[in-house]
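Q: How do we represent a protein-ligand complex in a form that can be generated token by token?
A: Start from the inputs.
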Amino acid sequence: MKQLTRAKITGVGAYVPPDTLTNADLEKLVATTDEWILERTGIRERHIAAKGVASSDLATEAAKVVLNSRGLSPSDLDAIIVATVTPDMFFPSTACLVQNKLGAPNVWGFDLSAACSAFVYALQTGAQYIATGAHKRVMVIGADVMSSIIDYTDRATCIIFGDGAGAVLLEPSEDELGLIDFMHVVDGSGGESLFMPGGGSLNPTSHETVDRKMHFVHQDGQAVFKFAVRHMAEVCEKLLERNGFTGKDVDVFIPHQANLRIIKATGDRLGVKPENVIINIDRYGNTTAGTIPLAMNTALEEKKLKKGDLVLLASVGAGYTVGATLLRWAY
Ligand code: UT7
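Then emit the structure tokens for the protein with oxa(dethia)-CoA bound:
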């Protein structure tokens, strides 16, 4: 039988739009305080895209950083997968728009929808094309302009989300470094805890859907919080265990950045050393599909990632969707 090829991450790039929205700015929009937001979420500020800047723009910039870091050109790519819950439009896919903006002549691509877990799902999807030998270079991007679907009069949601993108390049590994294993779970019973009900085939856009604010994110924060704390850790535990590891073996833990309390509770339950947990939620908020590659970039900037490190990625999000990936850092 043909031996499957392990995929490894060979480059990471990030891009956030320059404008920021601080907690002090939010105090002027809704009944909230800097102190409440910081204490309950760990967020100080988020980046917000200017009018006319879309997910494909952030995604393209992040992908360019990756290509530059590897000394590659867009023509070296075989496929582009864009994880997003805020595509520029229903169709064409954001991946097609990124292909055109990058000027990548030899690729195909598609978008992947799994909300906050979309990046880890896309990472594993890309890895399968490497595993089978179908492709040599797959660009996996997580990009969201959450500000396009946030109601800035709803204090339950507007304090959390921000805009940003991160990208990684997947290439074949010749050794034991790279992606080791993953575990993904969906639980559709949580659908109405975090969703955007308008604009799809169920509730096509109308004056009524706009008047009823159905094109904004609706969230039952406490329900999502409880699910996240329990299930992100549970999936990580199972994944570590079946590979013969515990949280103590994890050199770098890169969790989805939705709430600092969720991150800390998960790290503690897994037994990951606090200094091994990557946190940048204070600067970016929750950028949905962007959080994990953005945090990977933070880990590299802070020189916390080195060749051979055991890395655990973990996410939880709307759906519900849960995902965890175990890998050995390859460079
Ligand atoms: O990517 C995955 C997506 N989302 C998540 O992971 C989000 C998970 N959930 C959360 O992060 C938290 O539930 C929130 C940050 C959204 C809310 O924090 P909480 O600690 O769960 O607050 P709460 O909803 O239980 O509200 C506590 C109190 C309430 O007041 P009373 O009833 O105790 O008087 C709220 O009305 O805080 C009030 N409150 C606020 N106060 C100031 C709720 N939001 C705010 C706010 N500013 N922005």
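The chain has a mean pLDDT of 97. The two ends are 29 Å apart (CA to CA).
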